[in-house]
Write a structure and sequence with these properties.
five-stranded antiparallel β-sheet; single chain; binds adenosine-5'-diphosphate; Beta-Lactamase; 19 helices; 45% helix; 26% strand
């Protein structure tokens, strides 16, 4: 209005012209009003804050600006526009106004409540109601910046993900051409994603791996959809060539992409490098093969059972010994299925290992499925898992049959050597034993040839007769010994030990009297029954009595006795003779053993008497004991089982 008034004040004298001018002015005014009205409507509808100022003094503002800064619009009119800028932004704003800058810049807005916000300001000079003014459009960037920040973070996350995830993500169309390959493919195969995009499938997969996915690719291209083949979560283990000529193994998961009609149009895949895993698995498999080869080639039977006694593993030798040809035949079975007669005994041993957790070794003879007897040493110990829980038992069964046979052979060899040595000793002893009496006989014969003296003849005939007796006895002993070695069948009868002693005393009396010995024997009232071979037992007593006579100096006493000791009948023969040194006691029953081997055989025999005696007693399931004090005497005790 003011403008039109101003215009009217310069009123021209020409009325018509003036009227025309007025009309034009009114027209201009109406246009201006209409424009301002439009502008207001527009600016009030705008979301940005709009402000018109003249050298910093606010002339007009829209509703959005009031809301943005927390003022009522009319309160802003006439105020300094700089009050809407935060102190640090004011110099910038002032400078833009001063230079009549036209364009956008950012700063910090200051609200009425003192809070601030990031703002974008677009400033430019305008003509406002005919005056040179400036228009400022202000945008609150808070949300924009937050969104930008969120976007930046998301992008950062994806970048991080892409950098750190080595899996290769790719898409492919139905014809088998790549439509996308993630950059991580370069880690996997050495080719960049761009290079891979150009590759055909036979450059991406080794021939064997390509063959593996052929069905899938075919199903992809044909209309008939095999639901099994195009399974949504399908995995392949594939070998892929690398740029450097090597290959990598991937586990590739494929998902079908379908169009709106459900037709397959492509594949989304994720490929993961499993080369390491495969190498590890291969090493593991190799180790297993090695172990298996090792245990299968062991001469020992090796087997593993679970805690319920079921077979889990048998090596080749174990299967052979069990008489089966494959592991399948033993799986889930127990000892009783193969060795029913041994099951109880062996199960008890296994239980012992499970209970104690300790290794157990035991040896025994078993009859195998082949019918042969085998001597086995079984070592069993617990098997633990990585957590230390007992999960089974391991058995290592060594066949000792051959070893035992070798040992027996060795033993027999040694026995043979011993026998040879004994024989040599015997020949030495025997030749000595025979030579002495033979010499004596030769001397006597010589004398007899030359003399007629009846006294001498009688003396030498006597010597000859004694030596013949001796030779006969010695030969008897030897024959007896060999006979006993070969066959010791007893003619058992119920007999009284007292009668045995009676007989021995009767036949030994003369011999004892010749040496001036006294024989003492007080026959008890009650009997002492034994089952025995009378003649053989009498022979035993004869040997012992003969020794007592021989190894007791002239005028000694030899005492017989009999008593019960528990379930045994004990016959004793005690002399008052030279005794036996402690060191010799353990050996006197040995063949040809004599305490003083240089001693003349005329006092005693060849060292076989006690051997014979003990053989006979032991055949009766009895035993002989000897007690002796050198210089004082010796007592032999013969124990025989009492007859019930
Ligand atoms: P021998 O034919 O030499 O008597 P024996 O086998 O009967 O052989 O006895 C072995 C050895 O035991 C004898 O050579 C002797 O040294 C010793 N011996 C046996 N009985 C007696 C005993 N009553 N007193 C002392 N020594 C004895």
């Amino acid at each position: 209005m003011k403008t039109s008034e101003n215009k009217l004040s310069a009123f021209p004298p020409d009325l018509a012209a003036a009227q025309a001018q007025i009309a034009a002015l009114e027209q201009a005014l109406a246009e201006t009003q209409a424009r301002e009205e439009r502008y207001r409507l527009l600016s009030d509808a705008a979301l940005e804050g709009i402000l018109i100022h003249e050298r910093g003094i606010i002339l007009d503002a829209n509703a959005a600006l009031g809301t943005m800064f927390g003022y009522a619009v009319h309160d802003l009119i006439g105020q300094d526009a700089l009050m809407l800028a935060a102190p640090d932004t004011r110099p910038i704003v002032a400078q833009k106004i001063a230079t009549d800058f036209s364009g956008a810049y950012t700063g910090t807005g200051l609200r009425r409540d003192g809070s601030t916000f990031p703002a974008e300001i677009i400033g430019r000079p305008i003509l406002y109601r005919g005056r040179a003014a400036r228009l400022a459009v202000i945008r609150d960037l808070t949300e924009v910046q937050a969104a930008q920040e969120a976007l930046r973070r998301t992008q950062e996350r994806y970048r991080m993900l892409a950098e750190h995830v080595r899996d290769v993500i790719w898409t492919m169309d139905a014809s088998g051409r790549f439509t996308y390959v993630s950059p991580s493919v370069e880690y996997l195969r050495g080719y960049t994603a761009e290079e891979v995009m150009q590759q055909s499938l036979d450059q991406v997969l080794t021939p064997a791996s390509l063959a593996q996915v052929q069905d899938y690719l075919q199903a992809l291209q044909t209309d008939s959809i095999d639901p099994d083949l195009l399974d949504p979560d399908r995995r392949y283990v594939l070998e892929q060539p690398c740029k450097d000529g090597s290959t990598v193994w991937t586990e590739t998961k494929v998902n079908l992409i379908r169009d709106a009609d459900g037709r397959p149009i492509g594949v989304l895949g994720v490929s993961r490098d499993i080369t390491e895993r495969r190498r590890f698995e291969a090493a593991l498999a190799q180790e297993r093969t090695l172990l298996r080869t090792l245990i299968d080639n062991l001469p020992d039977s090796v087997l593993v059972k679970d805690l319920q006694g079921r077979f889990l593993l048998n090596n080749a030798e174990s299967l052979r010994r069990m008489g089966v040809s494959s592991q399948e035949e033993t799986l889930g079975k127990v000892t009783a299925d193969f060795f029913p007669e041994k099951a109880a005994e062996w199960d008890a041993l296994e239980q012992q290992v499970i209970r104690t957790g300790r290794k157990l070794v035991h040896e025994e003879g078993i009859i195998r499925s082949d019918g042969d007897e085998h001597w086995i040493r079984s070592t069993q110990f617990p098997l633990y898992d990585q957590q230390g829980t007992m999960i089974g038992l391991v058995f290592i069964n060594q066949d000792l049959t051959e070893q035992k046979a070798a040992e027996r052979q060795q033993y027999e060899l040694e026995m043979e050597r011993e026998r040879t040595a004994v024989l040599e000793r015997f020949i030495g002893d025997a030749s000595h034993s025979f030579k002495t009496p033979l010499t004596a006989m030769r001397v006597s014969l010589g004398v007899l040839k030359r003399t007629d003296d009846p006294a001498k003849v009688a003396e030498h005939l006597n010597i000859l007769s004694l030596q013949v007796d001796y030779l006969e006895r010695t030969l008897d002993d030897l024959l007896n010994l060999t006979r006993l070695d070969r066959d010791l069948t007893l003619e058992l009868e119920r007999l009284d030990a007292r009668d045995l002693i009676d007989a021995a005393v009767r036949s030994g009396r003369t011999m004892a009297l010749e040496k001036g010995h006294t024989l003492e024997w007080q026959r008890p009232e009650t009997g002492f029954q034994v089952f025995g071979d009378f003649n053989r037992l009498k022979r035993t007593l004869d040997v012992i009595l003969l020794n007592a006579v021989n190894y007791t100096p002239y005028g000694g006493t030899i005492t017989f006795g009999v008593k019960s000791e528990g379930r045994q009948v004990c016959i004793t023969v005690a002399d008052t003779g030279i005794g036996i040194p402690d060191a010799d006691l353990p050996y006197i029953f040995n063949r040809f053993y004599r305490v003083d081997s240089a001693r003349d055989v005329s006092t005693g025999g060849m060292g076989v008497g006690l051997t014979i005696a003990r053989k006979i007693v032991e055949a009766h399931r009895g035993w002989i004991k000897v007690e002796s004090v050198p210089g004082q005497g010796t007592t032999f005790k013969i124990y025989l089982p009492a007859a019930q």
